[in-house]
Amino acid sequence: xxxxDYIVVGLGIAGICISEQLxxxxxxxxxxxxxVEGSTAKSGGVFNPTVLKRFTATWNVSKFHPYAFNFYxxxxxxxxxxxxxxxxxxxxxxxxEEQNNWxxxxxxxxxxGFLSSTFIKNNNPxxxxxxxxxxxxxxxxxxxxxxxxxxxxYLKSKQKLITxxxxxxxxxxxxxxxxxxxxxxxxxxxxxxxxxxxxxFFLKKSLIGNKGEFIVxxxxxLKVKSLLKGPIYVIPMGDDKYKVGSTYGRDDYSLNxxxxxxxxxxxxxxxFINCSFEVISQxxxxxxxxxxxxxxxxxxxxxxxxxxxxxxxxxxxxxxPLLSETLYKHLEEGEPLTKEIYIGRAxxxxx
Length: 351
Known about the structure:
Shape: globular
Largest sheet: 8 strands, mixed
Structural class: alpha+beta
CATH superfamily of the domain at 2-43 and 145-205 and 293-348: FAD/NAD(P)-binding domain
CATH architecture of the domain at 2-43 and 145-205 and 293-348: 3-Layer(bba) Sandwich
Number of strands: 21
């Protein structure tokens, strides 16, 4: 029997962040992951502290943003992979009213340093933006493929990774510990994203699957280097390729790309792009969201050694680093979780 402090299940952004907390504090662990791409891999990788539909700051941004920014810069150096690329977002203005609302929002304390008060004129003939752009600062593009492959190799080098499907029937509790096959650990942390709905120990009604679909296009004349936000995002991938999306499908856990989503994305894209392009591929992922748009952390009373780190939704890149520290302090130092992030609050939710 191999003894560890923790078992971690899932190698998405939540699994990476909690693993880093365990490493920083000298805790032994083994991470188990199927190797199948999840929502982190299929996301756009946009690191954005604002809500650009309403020109507001995201929840708790003053704490999440600086912690996450430093976390990713440090992790990039550690695994010697340049996955974190600082890059502004250019938000297309649809009306004079939007420009006015932007100006008002940029003066708010919580958006200081994020919404630039200087408008940018559009000089790109391939983009329809007669009113120009608002620029969002403190943003970045996370190259998810580089992050995941880089961290996977790092864990392999430290002999901390098992690549296999987790078999829930092989998990048992014994003497205030957990046993999985030949591993004995104090606790197990499930950081499985939307796949957690297959976990028999999870409170199913606490998660809402939100399917998002992207297309990848090749557009030689587009010439966009920043993150472009119109009705949808246009995200540069290099070699004249761009990731475009995404859609939102509530209560949808399917991973099959649909023609309906493709048509929706193309319709929105053509409303602000006027150059020719070719659709190369389409992919779908499922965001793990919640009824109250807050994460799910901690364990349920009936299984205190089974811990969950989930419900990060579309803001996982922003929230996961600091939330992983919060979860670690809860597990190791006994710091209580606030009601708004504690998983136990979901017991009273109606299906």
